Structure formats: structure tokens, C-alpha cells
Amino acid sequence: MNDVRKEFALKALANGANLSALCLEYGVTRKTGRQWRERARQEGINQLAERSRRPKCSPQRLSETMVCQVVRLKVAHPHWGPKKICALYVLAHHQPLSVSSCHRILQAAGLVAARQRRVRHAPSREFAAVIPRAPNDVWTIDFKGWWRSGDGTRCEPLTVRDDFSKYILATHVPADTRTVTIQREFTRLFQLYGLPKVIKSDNGVPFANITVPQRLSRLSAGWVALGIRLEHSRPGHPQDNPAHERMHKDIQVEVAAKVQVDARAQQAALDLWRQEYNELRPHETLKGRRPAEVYGKSPRAYPAAPALLDYGTGFLPRKVASSGKISYAGRRFFITSALAGWCVGLRLASATHVEVWFNYLLLGAIDLQTNRFDSAPSRSVKAVGLAA
Predict the structure, then answer these.
(1) How far apart are alpha carbons 243 and 132 in whole angstroms?
(2) For residues 296, 358, 202 and 186, what is the CA-based torsion angle, rounded to 10 degrees?
């Protein structure tokens, strides 16, 4: 190719040369032909080789200081990807930086792992979840799988998260998982943040009991009395609460994998992680905002006195005994011991059937002919709060 250019240039520099005819003969444009001729005239016949098109200077080139700052952030947050590191850099240094530039820096430093392609499955039509439209519409709750601290103490954090804002309300390591202990923690959360409209959980103790009408437990019965709606995932289907499960994976990698000396130190590590998650970590679903920027306390305050259930006209109140039974028409019917101490409302549905309600939940009906209480299907509720 070099020889062809030299031949063309020698002919083009000759007296009386026809540039247009030469360009046609060699199959190049007039612009290219003029460039070859002028370069040969000014720089010499041996300077016609192909040159790099790389610009001599780049005003957009990242400075060494910026590169070091990005790498430093990645080292401090090794499990964050380029999008989150980029957002954190902009927040910390108030300088623009694109995600692609951030990715190139981390890739050059060997700090970006190859990402496996996730197989996305269509959502199941068997489970219609409540869609939150504002903070405190839905709280998701669960226990993170347990691990042992350095002194052998079992750590099984109770995690509570606002589904709309992604704000983590609690990562609390309780002394045990008894109902009274967990109830105490939720009382603290309700006093601090107010009441949610819906609490979403799995079917494990103490959140639910699949053998009881509407899967009520002693703990969730108190929530229903406060007007909080219950939503349970299907048994054996953790994918019904995917965002919460994803958060648990983050805890596993970023907290549980770094075992602390004792339960107190482990709780301190969880508190620090929760603060970082809420206040520093940007979320794609929040368009790069942080949960603390989106979350706000519920306008529904936790009542100072215990909830009193008023069923209104057409209902006959009956107190559930410690045995789980109620009295009606001179007979005793077993409902559930989960409601011991609470009042249920009885409503005559027909000459032979009496409905049994607990606040907004239809628990079932008493058949006066067979003297038997039959449970109602789950999700038999009065219209309250949100629609599924």
C-alpha cells in the first residue's frame, strides 16, 4: 500500500499532472489524493504510511486522582457494582462521572467480576401481591438464616423493610424467637415509625400458623387488631418475597461472612450495615436515590392504649377463652387459642350458619346443625386499606 501511495504522489507532483485522472486511475477520492500529494510535498515521499487516528489530547480523559478515588470507593465497598460506585463518587466528590467510565476504571483495575446472566421467570399468577404506592403501604418481615458469632452465640436477625422505599427498619438480633420477644420489638418499631397498612411474611413461627384460620398467630392477631392487613407468601415459595430475600443475600455476604466476636459486636456490625444501606447505597428501583431520601414515618400512630374492637350493628361480640373457645346459644365452639383474650364478632348469615369475624377477617362459620366451626378460605376479608 505504501508503494502505491508513493507512486501516486510522484505522478501527482509532476508538472502538468491531472489530479482528477490520477484519482480515477488509483481508485481514491480527490480529497484523499490531495492529502497524499500535500503530505509528500511538505514532509517527503517516505511519510505516506497510515497514521494513528488517536487524538493527541483528550479533554475528557479522567485524571489520575479521579481514578484513584473510584478505586478507593470500590475497595471500601467490594460488593457494589459500577452503577452504585459511580453514584457514590458523584455524591462524595460533586463531580460528574458516567457509569461506563466508572466501569472502565474498575475493569482496568481488575475489580469487576464477570456477571452471570440471570434467567428471568414470569411471575406466578397464583400469588397476587399487594403493590405499594407509598412508604408504609407494605412492610416485609422475616428472619435471616442464622450463623454463630465468635463465642458460639446463635445470631438470627429479625429483618423488617419498607417495600416501597427499600428502607430497612430493623436488623435486630433478638435474645430468642418467642412471641413475647418479637412482639416487644414490633411495639418499638410501631412507636418509632407508626403503623403500616400491610405486613408481608412467610408462614413460619411466630408470624403465622398454617393450621389456624387465616394463618393467625398470637403475634399477627395483635396486628390485625390494629387494623394492619396480613399478607402471607405461599408455603415453600420464597420467590414470593424476592426483594427481601435479595437483601438477606447482601447480609450474608457483607455481614454474616465476617463473623464478630460476640452477639453485641454482631449487632453493632448489623447496625452499621443498615445505616450504610439506608443512607449511602443508591438503588436502581429508586432511580439512584437512597432509601433514607424516600422513606417517611407513617401518619398512622401506634395507639397508647390496647386496641378495642367494635364490630358495630349486626354483630354479637364474644370473648375467646384461653382454651380458644367461645360460647354461643348455650354451646361451646373451638375457634383458635391464638385469639385468647380477644373479642370476635358473630353475625347471623342464615338460620343455620353464624359467621365468626376477627376485626376485618372472616375466620369461618359455625354450623348450628352439626355444632361445628368451619374455617373460611384465606383472604376472606372486608375491604380495608389497599387492594391486592
Answers:
(1) 13
(2) 40
Tell me the C-alpha distance between 228 and 246, whole Å: 25
CA separation for the pair 352, 357 (Å, rounded) = 17
8-17, 112-121, 154-163, 371-380: which is most confident: 154-163
pLDDT tens-digit map of 24-47: 888 889 898 888 888 888 888 777
Contact 375, 213 (CB under 8 A): yes
The string of DSSP letters for 345-380 reads EEEE-SSSEEEEEETTEEEEEEETTTTEEEEPPTT-
Give residue for cell 463531580.
Answer: 95
Query: What is the structure's pLDDT at 385?
Result: 44
Q: What is the tens place of the pLDDT at every residue in 70-106? A: 888 888 888 788 888 888 888 888 888 888 888 888 8
pLDDT, tens only, 211-245: 999 999 999 999 999 999 999 988 777 778 889 99
Cα separation, 174 vs 161, whole angstroms = 17
Own/partner pairs, 365-369, CB within 8 angstroms, 24+ separation: 366/328, 366/333, 368/329
Residue at grid coordinates 380477644? 342
Confidence of residue 156 (pLDDT cuts 50, 70, 90): very high
Q: Which residues of 51-79 are buried (b: 16+ CB within 10 A; e: fewer)?
A: eeeeeeeeeeeeeeebbebbbebbeebee
Q: Three cell numbers at 237?
A: 415459595
Closest by CA position to 256, among listed 197, 329, 173, 135? 173
The domain spans of the chain are 2-43, 64-108, 138-294, 316-375
CATH 3.40.630.30 applies to domain 138-294: no
Q: Which long-range contacts (CB under 8 A, 24 or more apart) does 313-320 make?
A: 314/347, 315/345, 315/346, 315/347, 315/357, 316/345, 316/346, 316/347, 317/343, 317/344, 317/345, 317/346, 318/343, 318/344, 318/345, 318/346, 319/343, 320/344
pLDDT of residue 96: 84
